[in-house]
Amino acid sequence: MTRNNFKHYSTVVVVVASLILTTCGDTPSTSVSVDQFFSDFTDEWVRRNPNQAVRYQYFQGDEQDQLSRELTPVTREWKEGRILLARKGLEQLASFDKDLMSDDQQLSADIMQWQLQSVIDSESFLDYDFPLQQMNGVNVTLTNELAVVHPIRTQRDAENYIARLRQVDERIEEARRESELQAASGIIPPDFILDATIASMELFVSSAPADNPLVTALATKMESVSEIEQSRRTQLVNEAIEIVESEVYPAWRSALGTLSSQRADATEDAGLWRFEGGDVLYAQRLRAFTTTDLSAEEIHDIGLREVARIELEMDRLFQGIGYTDGSIVERVEQLRAATSYPDTDEGRALIMSDIQDYLSDALQRTESSFDIRPKAKVIAQPYPEFRWANAAASYNGPPADGSRPGIFQMPLRPSRLTQFGLRSLVYHETVPGHHFQVALTIENAELPAFRQIRALGGLSASSEGWGLYAERFAAEDNWYEDDIVGRLGQLNSELFRARRLVVDTGLHAMGWTRQQAIDFGIEASEIERYVVMPGQACSYMIGQLKIIELRDRAMEELGARFSLRDYHNQVLEVGIVPLAILEQRVDNFISESLGIE
């Protein structure tokens, strides 16, 4: 292979690629197969996004090396260029006759069409994503790209890390300028979002440069690389310290000044309703994240229905263990406190140890219900401290080249130091949740590259829906047989996702305030997440309910022929797709199982 396992190139394909991707109006030559087009277009897409190329080690040789020395721009111009490329991709895709495609090729074409159209649909709303914010702003993602994602296996990898580190100040400055332009147009984050972002960024620059995660991660990663001599390690760490002190910290402080200057004009109004055309924007975000046409009102009603159902079941279990007084929220807080870890270094070490134990146990428990499993391992590690206050637990998938495992990151703020709900969280993020789905998708060489690495977008309803399904499955498979507290934690996690449907739509479509959302049972850091990521929180339960609905449909129609392993195979093998396409896949599976043509 001349590249990694995403593609199998030949000289002919490389020549043809130059014909495909020259000008915006070009259409593929008739000699180019749709598979070649998928591959060539994904190359072009990833080539514009060095962060993606590094995350998945997409290319090989000199091209990968060069991209591994760059950080993806965060400018308006870069976003517009991506939309232009999406339009070009749709035009090229339309030139292929679907009647001549195989079933798998048609499926991939439908997924690509949906994703590229979603990118194009975002064009009118580019000004409404705050570039500096506490959840996934540039001030957060830059550190993650280097400290977590960037692999260091050789001395050259470490030198590339330094090259990327030198661009951090430029990326932060781009974000700062974008924030200024937004503010000049009256688009300013709510005051509490500014407060949370400023606090996080101030914490980031509060430590000595030598103790900053951008430096400590480099030093830690180099420890296991024997080819780097100690003198060279010291030299590279000192270089990183100098960059953080003279370039990164000044850029951070400049951005902090910009955010602080916006504070006087900010209000507590949080929803998209406050902007002209906010209802249209929110509908676009809901469609992008849920991959459905459900309205805000419909999603709100689903949330209210699910909240009532889950609270009824939780009340029954609470009564059984003697928690009889107070609302569900109050009893959850009582149980959370009763099962908390000490707010100490020892307590944080203990929760990480328990997470590893739950993960190992889950790997054993899933042997009877999942016969396809990823080759990549998954590990758990805490976030760096400056992320604790705002970060949600998350999973980073492995690259296909095996250079690092899947990584589950855990924020260790006091409110997360509890056993209550911990098992369910581990199942969601790792096994049988995100790690099974994401890593299997990355490792599935039968899929086009854009599907393997989710190059064109995350399709949150499918991925987060599967994560929440994994939580429910653990309960249905009797993993909590002797653990009522654990079962209550699982139900509370599901209740949390149901409340999200109500709160996200309440905030963005119905004029809810931050306090109304808190009063509905959602903690402040979560509400701040929904404000800067409108619609994303709705993807979890909408996706889970669809996966359960399709499973129940298959069980009913197949009867004794139904196999849970087979159903899980269908969902995992198709990868991460819009829900309508998943439904089509399952319906075809049912028909084939019944022998219906």
Descriptive notes:
Helix 2 (34-47) packs antiparallel against helix 5 (76-94). With 597 residues, this protein is mainly α. 62% of the residues lie in helices and 2% in strands. Strands 1-3-2 form a three-stranded mixed β-sheet, with helices on one face. The longest helix is centred in the middle third of the chain and has 33 residues, at 230-262. It has helices spanning 11-20, 34-47, 50-56, 61-67, 76-94, 103-121, 138-149, 155-165, 168-184, 191-204, 213-222, 230-262, 278-290, 296-320, 328-338, 345-365, 422-429, 434-443, 449-452, 460-476, 484-509, 514-519, 524-532, 539-558, 564-574, 579-593, and strands at 378-382, 394-396, 406-410. It is globular and about 65 Å long. It has three domains: 1-68 and 75-130, no CATH class; 151-268; 278-546, no CATH class. It contains 26 helices and three strands.
